[in-house]
Structure formats: C-alpha cells, structure tokens
Amino acid sequence: MTEFYLTLVSTLTAFVLCYKIIPVIIEVAREKKLFDLPDHRKQHTTPVPPLGGVAILISLAFAFFLFADLGQSPELKLGFIGVLIIFFMGLKDDLLEMDATQKFIIQIAMAALAAHGGIRITHLHNIFGLESLSLPAQYIISTFAIVGLANAFNLIDGIDGLAGGLSSICFLGLGLIFSSLGLYTYSLLAFTGLGATLAFLRYNFSPAKIFMGDAGSLSLGFIIAIMCIKLVQSTAVLSGFVSISSLFVSFVFSLIIIPVADVSQVMINRILHGRSPFDPDRGHIHHILLRLGLNHKQAAMVLWGNSLFFFSLCLGAFFLNFSPSLALGAILVYAYSAVMVLHWKDRMKKANTKTLINKEQQFAGAGFSLQKQV
Question: Is residue 62 part of a domain?
Fold first, then answer.
C-alpha cells in the first residue's frame, strides 16, 4: 500500500510541476523570441515555443528521483544518463538546429550505453524461430529498438496533442502492467511520466500554446523504449498467472503500434517512390487525416482512440484467455490495413481534386467558372 501512495504522490507532483512550469517557459520563450517558426512542412501558422520537453523532463525527473529507489533497478542508471544526453541534444536542435547525422550518431551511442547498462533484448521468445541471442546481437537489436522507437515518437509529433496523448497512453498502459507485475520502480516511472504528459497536454492540445520539441519527443520515446524492453524481457508473474512472453510482446506492440506503423509506412512509401527514407514530407498518418478533412483535435483523438482500442484488445485477450499472439496479429492486420485504406482515400481525393482543377481551367478558358469547392 505504501508503494501505491508513493506512486500517486509522484504522479501528482509531476503533474503540478509541469502544469506550473509551462506558463513560465512560454513567457520566457516570448521574451527571448524562442519560437518554432511556420514553414511549408509544418501544420502551425503562428510561431509557437518548442520547449515543452523542458517542463516534461524536469517534472518527470524531479518527481521520479524524489521517490524512486534505483537500487531495485540498477540497470536504469546508464539508461537515464542516455536520456539526459538525448534531452540536451534535442534541446540544442530545437534552439539552434543540429546536423542530422550527428544527432543519429549520438542516439546510437546513448542507446548502446543503455544496452551496456543492462537494458537489452536477450531473447526473442521464438519469434522468427529465435530464442537466446548472442551478446553482439543483443546490443545491435536493442540499440536499433531504442533509436527506432525514439525517432518514431519524434516523427509522430506533427500535430497538436498527438505525441503527448500517445505518450500518456503508453505510460498508463505500462504503469498498469508493471504495477501488476510488482515492478515498482518501472511502475513509478510510468505513472510519473503520465502525470507530466497529462499536464503538458493542457497546453499542447489544439490550439497548442507550446510544443514538446525534439527534446521532449526523443526523450519520451527513449524512456518508453527502455520500459518496453524491460517488459518484453520480464520473467515476472502477472496477477498470479504464469507469465506468458508473447503476452508481454502483444502488450508492447499494442501501445507503440501507431508510431511504429506510421514511421515504417512513411519510409517504405518514400523508398517505393525512389526517395531517401529520411526525406521529410507530408506522408504521415496525421497528415493524411488532415487532408481527408479532420482538424487537429479530431485527428489526434482518432489516433488516441485507436491506441486505447489496441491496448484494450490485448487486455481482453488476456482476461478472456484468448491467444495473445492472435490479438497481436489482429492489431497488426488492422493497423496496416487502415494505413493502406487511408492512403487509397488520400490518392482518390488528390485525383478528384486534380480533375476538378482541370475542369475549372477548361471552363475558365471557355469563359465560364466552375464554383465547386474542393
């Protein structure tokens, strides 16, 4: 019971701190003219401070370290050093911009540092017929997973409230599972993160008064990746039942599938069109939803709702004694099918728009005007 109250206090502490710090950061940013300026790739039309990650990380770190006992989870120590470096790297990029290659190298180094501290994928639960991994394979796969997920959260941060809301859902789901497993330190970290991100959403939900920036999205993605690896590798018992490795894998994918599906479909689409997978464009899921007529609030809430649905599906599979692998398969099929449908609708709308423009030009050339709005 003591752990429950400490977690509650830590969550509330992070929420209140973040809620109070953000207005101060917004005021300082306005005085110093520290803004994320609009351009042709961005959705906002007015300058917005990109320093929300500062409030999130300060609140999360203060509340967590105030109540946590890292002696229970010593593997987190190097992981947090990695988060700190990633945070300052992201902050520099938010204010001054950094070379993309340099950023990528730092991310790989910090992910490898976390893996060296013990945050590693050591076995794959018979996925692709693989069980235990050699030490080099552990480092390679773990580093790829951490860097990939951190960047997935960074790239999904394209409209008001989306990355903050998805992070909150991840923290909530992971907190509930870690609490059931009796992994107090990780449960405390997850719920503390939930408190900080919920407070941030008060100022980031459309119309946003502040963005989390790279400092926020990369750091949160890094932290969530660390917790996901811990869960996948857990041998604990869940609610009195024998632990099922595939169940933990299903839980993890249900929480991260939206940013992972988004970044993978974007990169695949760019490669298929003969472009670099790292070239920025407006091919993300949230961009498509906006083009199909949704506003920022609606697009964010649609993706939040799907994330909650995926997690609920895994919970239902567990409590109803369905195969967790079946639940994971359903999530993957649904997610990527939905992405393909969205792309098809987007292409159809673009084709219809092009046809109407051509007709309007023809009518205009003949002395008429087609008034239909696209």
Answer: yes
Name the band, by pLDDT with cuts 50, 70 and 90, for residue 365: low
Q: Which residues contact 281 (CB under 8 A, 6 or more apart)?
A: 41, 266, 270, 275
Q: Where are the alpha helices (DSSP H) in the chain?
A: 2-32, 52-67, 76-95, 100-116, 135-156, 162-181, 184-204, 213-232, 245-272, 285-291, 296-319, 324-365
Question: What 3-state DSSP class applies to 179?
Answer: helix
Helix (H, G, I), strand (E, B) or coil at 121: coil
**Domain-located, residue 328:** no
User: What phi and psi, each to the nearest 5 degrees, are found at residue 36?
Assistant: -90, 110
- The residue range of the domain holding 13 is 2-282
Please indicate, yes or no, if residue 311 is contained in any of the structural domains.
Answer: no
Q: For 297-309, how does the pLDDT look when each residue is reduced to its tens digit (9 = 90+)?
A: 999 999 999 999 9
CA 352 centroid distance within chain? 33
Q: Residue 6, exposed/middle/buried by CB under 10 A (0-12, 13-18, 19+)? A: middle
Q: Which residues pair with 370 in a beta bridge?
A: none
Residue 162 is assigned to a structural domain of this protein: yes
Closest CA to 52 of 67, 35, 66, 69: 35
- Residue 93, C-beta contacts closer than 8 angstroms, at least 6 positions apart: 103, 214, 215
207 upstream amide cis, omega within 30 of 0? yes
Count the domains in the chain. 1
Global pTM value: 0.90
* Amino acid identity at 238: L
H-run or E-run covering 359: helix 324-365
- Evaluate whether 211 touches 48 at the Cβ level (below 8 Å): yes
Residue 131: in which H helix or E strand, if any? strand 130-132
